[in-house]
């Protein structure tokens, strides 16, 4: 149960952190 919770947290943090980072870069380049 502990490893499964850690795996879900890492997977959720990876896409969540990449989403805002990519959106900022695209908005900065567009402007």
Give the secondary structure arrangement, pairings included.
Elements: H1 2-30
What's this model, at a glance?
Helix content is about 95%, strand content about 0%.
Question: Can you walk me through this structure?
Answer:
- With 31 residues, the chain is mainly α.
- 94% of the residues lie in helices and 0% in strands.
- It is built from one helix and no strands.
- The radius of gyration is 14 Å and the shape is rod-shaped.
- It starts with a helix and ends with a helix.
- The mean pLDDT is 58.
- Residues 1-31 are annotated as: Disordered.
- Residues 9-31 have a biased composition (Basic residues).
Q: H/E element string?
A: H
Oligomer: single chain
Q: Looking at the structure, what is the overall shape?
A: rod-shaped
The tally of helices reads 1
Number of strands: 0
Structural class: mainly alpha
- Portion of residues in beta strands equals under 5%
Note the main attributes of this structure.
mainly alpha, single chain, rod-shaped, 31 residues, 1 helix
